[in-house]
Amino acid sequence: MNGLDNTMNEHIKIPFVDLYPQYEEIKSEIDNAIADIINRSDFITGPTVDKFEQAICDYTGAEACASMGSGTNSLVCALRALEIGPGDRVWTVGHTFVSTTEAIVNVGAIPEFVDIDDFYLFDLDSATAHPKAPKAILFVDLYGQTPNIDALKSFAKKYDIKLIEDAAQSFGAEYRGKKVGSLVDLTCFSFNPVKNLGAMGDAGAVTGSKELVDKVKMYRDHGRKTKFEYDAVGYNSRIDNLQAVVVQAKLSKIDDWLDKKRAICRRYTDKLKNIVKCPQEAPWGLHSYYVYVIETPAGTRDKLAEFLKTKGIATNVHYRNPTHTTKAFKKYAVESLPITENICNNILSLPCYHTLPKHWQDYIITGIKEFYDKH
Questions:
Q1: Which of 206, 245, 179, 213 is nearest to 46 (CA)?
Q2: Is 143 buried (19+), middle (13-18) or exposed (0-12) by CB count in 10 A?
Q3: DSSP state letters, 309-331
Q4: 131 vs 139: CA distance, rounded Å
Q5: 89-102, pLDDT tens digit by residue?
Q6: How high does pLDDT run on average in the chain?
C-alpha cells in the first residue's frame, strides 16, 4: 500500500515516537536479559551494574562511568562531584530541557544564561559578555551534536572553570572523531526511553576520570563510600539492574540505528532545505539527531503543526519556552536572549526514528511542501 494514496489519508497515523519496532529488532536479547535478572533476583548494584558501566566506558572511551537513576540525577551528582554549590555561578543555556537549569538550582548554584549560535548550541562569544567568569559551564549537546569543545576547553583552562557536558541527547555523537563521553571533566547521559539509546524507564550515566566518577558514585548512593560510612549528604540515584541490562542490550545496535537515523534526517534536509530552515551539522562533529528540528518562516509553526496533524502526522516542539522565561527560573535571567527567544517561536520537530518507513518520510515531506504551497 502506498502511504501517499490520498484516498487513504484518513487512515494514516504517524506517531512522533515509535519505540516498539526498535524493541522488536532485539526482542530476544532484551527479554532474555530481563528474565535473567528476575530469575537471579538481581535488582540493584553488583556485577550487573559493573558490567554495564564497563560497556559504556568501552563505547565512549571514558576512564570511568557511574550509572544513574536518571539523566537529571546525573547532572545533580556531577555538579556536586565538582564541588559546585550554594552561590556558585554556572553558565548554561535557556534553550534546553528544564533538567539542565533545574540541576544547577537544586545544588544551590546560580544559573547565568547564555544565548545560542546557528547550531542551537552554547555560544561562547555571547557568554564572554558576562562580566565575570563562572565556576563551571554546563553546556548542552542540544538535538544531538556538540558545541566547539576545543574553544570551551581553552577558555575554561584560562579561567580555571569546570566543564560539564549535558549529553542527554547526544549519546553516539562524535567530536573530531571521538565519541562523546570522554571530552570534558564530566559528561552526563540520559537513557530515558525516548532517547536514541533508551531504557524501559528512567536511567542515566556520568562519565569522566575515575577520581571524579568515584565522587559521583558516592553522591548517587546516599553519600557513602562503604556500606556504613556516610561522607556526605547524598541521594538515592542508583540505576536499577533491569534498566542496565536493557540499555546494554541496545548498545550493540546503537551505531547502526544512528546511521539509519542520520540518513533519514539528511534526506529531510535535501528535500526541505528550500522550504524551511533545516538543521546544520557542525563541521567538527557527527550529529546523533535525537530530534530533527526545522525552523519555519515566522508565524507559521503552529499552523504547520496543525495542518500536519490533520494529515495524521504527529510533531513536537523542543522547546517551546526557554527555561529562563518560565515562572520557576525567570528570576535568574538578567537579560534577554534574543536568538533563543526568537527561534523558540519557529522550531518544529519532525518524526525521525530509524524505523520510519520511506513512504512515511515522503508523506511528511509532501505534507510540508503542500502547506507552504498554500501559504
A1: 245
A2: buried
A3: HHTTB--B-TTSS-GGGSTTTGG
A4: 19
A5: 999 999 999 999 99
A6: 95
